[in-house]
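Training component of the fellowship. As part of building independent skills, the fellow (R.M.) carried out the full modelling exercise for a liganded target. The chosen ligand was adenosine-5'-diphosphate. The inputs are recorded below so that the supervisory panel can assess the work.
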Amino acid sequence: MFTKILIANRGEIACRIIKTVRQMGITTVAVYSDADRSALHVKMADEAVYIGAAPSNESYLVVNRIIQAATETGAQAVHPGYGFLSENADFCRQCAMHNITFIGPPVDAILAMGSKSAAKTIMANADVPLVPGYHGDDQSSAFLKSEAEKIGYPVLLKAAAGGGGKGMRAVHCAEEFEQALIAAKREALSSFNDDLMLVEKYLLKPRHVEIQVFCDSHQNAVYLFERDCSVQRRHQKVIEEAPAPGMTLELRQKMGAAAIKAARAINYEGAGTVEFLLDSRGDFFFMEMNTRLQVEHPVTEMISGQDLVTWQLIVAAGQSLPCSQEQLKINGHAFEARIYAEDPDNDFLPATGRLSLLQPPPEDSYIRVDTGVVQGDEVSIYYDPMIAKLIVWGTTRAKALTRLTEALSKYRIAGVTTNIGFLYNLATSQAFRDGDVDTGFIQHHHDEIFRQRQQDLNYAAPLAASAFLNLRQDNAAKIAQQSNEPNSPWHLNNNWGRPMSVIRMEIQQNECVLSAESHADLSNSTIVSKNNGFDLFTPEGFFHCRQLYPDLGVNNDDVDRDNLKAPMHGTLIALMVATGATVKKGDTLVIMEAMKMEHTVVAPSDGVVTEFYFQTGSLVEADAELLSFEALDL
Ligand code: ADP
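Fellow's submitted model of the complex:
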């Protein structure tokens, strides 16, 4: 076994790998960029090497810097985590050339699965069922469109080099095809420097069910069951679970066998995931194989009792798999919820900021929180906005789900907009409780998921009112105490007019964090006051309350004007109309790109664009006014 391993990653996955590597008695080496000088993964590792500037293409993606760090520190192996260089064939080759073990599959397996279209050809030859579609080299728009017509709409355009849902567009009819192809190619080129596209039948209401496989260098191969990752936004996973609801033993064995066939077809070694789409008839189709540890691997660990990072190290060291297929058993049910800095109410746009409050639920043998940040850290524009993964286990799905919702209600984060309230609403919805999931779940149940908050305001409203009163009274009392009026009620010291007492108060920069106890039911809540309102963390979940009354500070935000602002820090990539153009409500005015995703800014009403304040290619700050717009009186 190795004695020193370098972890070529950051954030939660670097921390999670360090934990296991340390438990195995192996020395750990972290790498870090300027933005991560005091990051948790750096503090946790035995040694740390600086590798460059904050943008990942100047640090975490620079092959030579990582190889140099491993050589200088005498690390015998490199664990790439997920993302960054984990599926980079050149990095894998360079490791071999420098006598460093790459903890992952052989380079040929990475190459074989690196392109979704090449992978489909290999899988077709190995008799693994595929989604019907075109995955060849002819890329002319007319040809791809004729293929789409052959397949039949709706179709899905996908970047062959794709990942992270980027370069992907659903097309519902022939009229939409050209525009969608241009947009998908543009996104693919900027994300992957490669705009090769494939066209697939867009399956309606499929489930995303993936199989965890493991192979060693002695021809042994097993599958560690399935994960259901159907609940997605922007084609990206939000909540994953294992086992998949409603899975039968027969279907599991069939999918497991197909996944092992896929892995064997490319002489796989190490941890891999074979992703399938599963339709309502129980037919399943190969989508792609990820040749690395997945974000959602903890749910498999929870139900199998195995540590997948330990398995990776064992295989990389040339030893045999720790278990046979017969020895592996499913125990109970697990969920993972991804806690993101993002705004569910604004199309899940990534958010940035400082984590002024970060209180995860307490961990125990049923609740695990994998994270790479601590209170006070910054969620920056440079990296993935995932704050943590909340993983829970229960003997049954229902018990695990109760644990998930309880843990979500205890999760308190302020300073950055998060999806916690959204996850809570999703996890408590009837359809999710029923396990009735498919990849369109969030869209189909949008009203149910988003409406629930209104009902729960019954709980939040008195707390918000109390918080307002407390702050106002504190201010008013200070003024009154300075006056000479002896009968002022403000001099009374009996909590007069206070339905809640503050038990802890902390001022952090321009925010005020109050831990409060309501006199009505004595439940604990945390309130973070901001300039324009409050974040309330109650036992019933999270609420954001805006101040509504002028004397409490009016929120003057004009909703329409907000729509004409840059939704986040990014690049303006296209002005879609000319200055002076008359446009209809909903017309696309500007396309921006941020974090490799495109965002469109649309006309808030019928009107005229009188001026654009930025040119194509400009870097624009979040919230910058993009254009001047005059609404037309109808
Ligand atoms: P990426 O590698 O960018 O994450 P995937 O190929 O893994 O892309 O697909 C991501 C998600 O997109 C899937 O989990 C599924 O929800 C959806 N998807 C992909 N292909 C299809 C398809 N042919 N029909 C319907 N949905 C699809």
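The panel noted the following from the submitted structure. Residues 131, 156, 162-165, 168, 200-203, 206, 208, 232, 235, 275, 277, 287-288, 439 surround adenosine-5'-diphosphate (CB under 6 Å). Confidence is low (pLDDT under 50) at residues 489-503, 548-559.
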